[in-house]
Amino acid sequence: MQLLNINIWTKSPLPGLLDLVIIGVYLILIFFWARIITQKRIDENPAYEFFQMGLFAKIFGAIALGIVYTFFYGVQDTLGFYISSEALVNVLFENPGGYFRLMMGDMSPEAFSAFNYRTGYPWYRNDPSGFFVVRITSIFTILGFKNYFTTSILFSCFFFKGFWKLYLMITDIFPNYRKEFAFAVFFFPSVMFWSSGILKDTVTLSMTGWFLYSFYWLVLKRKNTIKNLFWLLISGFCVLAIKPYVLVALIPGAFIYLAWNYLGKVNNVLLRIFLAPALTMIFLISGLFLLSLFKPALGDYGTIDGIIQKAIITYEDHTRAVQYGENFYSLGKFDGTLENFLSKAPGAITAGLFRPFIWEAKNPFVLLAALENLGLFFLICLILWRTGLVKTIEISFNTPLIVFSLSFALFFAFAVGVSTANFGALVRLKTPMLPFLATALLALYRRSAEIKNEKENNNARALVMKNV
Description:
This protein is an all-alpha fold. Helix content is 75%, strand content 0%. The protein is built from 23 helices and no strands. The longest helix has 34 residues, at 434-467. Residues 1-5 have low confidence and may be disordered.
């Protein structure tokens, strides 16, 4: 089948009249599908009251991302993934064997020779993780009739499932905090925008949700062993293929969660304090040993030296003003040693958690992220003021989910902060950390509020008894 000689790189991603009709049909079908799921499941699990809202929040985020890139950023990132996928779909119609060879992960020059001037040439020729996203996107490009916005809506709907699994896991642990955790997972502004459309972060965070959900039900709940083991392997593979450093944080973090879950079953406080360091170390070493089995696939992230060099290279890359703009921050000089690398931790974690600050924002998108960071900072201050540092630490240590979420967020903040010198890139790259940080903080906030109410009620009862 011969294709028309059309330059797909100059074609507008905006939908035409027929595309709008197709989008409308898909949205109606998605709405009724989500409604059926909600009505079917809500009686057995009240968390499903947020299923439709969460799903359409992802769709809204995907559309918003597409509009912003179409009118402000141009052909890069999400549009680059989509247009590359369109070239791959063109290969399907011209050379089906070549398409399936590429879909199976063949990155050889022979496989890429299937692309020509009629199909268009994709980006990510030398970026296996980027082309992995292109391969996934091509499936939705077919279903979306080769329109960016239709494809993006379908892409976000499919990967919403991982976000939903994460939410189900969290609300299974804290069933009374459904509203707060819905905000953390679905409606947190940066997460809704940067993890909804056709981007690496959407796939990574969705698969992280699947990974944790499967780990939780497989190891802790011990239910549906084969099903959960299958999704644990699939989700782990996808994270490894796109962002290996997330897996570097995820596996040890999951084992730390497991350790603190067992510690929570020890009723004696002194014994728990005594066992905590040893048990944490045992499970952490077990997680690191499991992670070492993936060393060949981790590439630069398979060794400490590799991680340091990769971080330095990425840090220096993000200081290139031509590609990323001139909105930088500096952590000082790197010399490649582990001691020097770890000395950057305070500044890197601060950057990953709270930067850009308000005064560092030089465009509206960075300003919105700065306001979001300010909100997180004030939430931390409110928790500490209301509960106190010692009590906050005590609540955290008694709640395995908070221990995991904070440890994952801090590790991720360091990893992103130490390797990202540009605020524009930092805003997007820190996204996978945000649902976990927000979950931990909102759980602490609610628990601190409950403790305050309990204290006030006890004081009131004591006063009544005193006056009797």
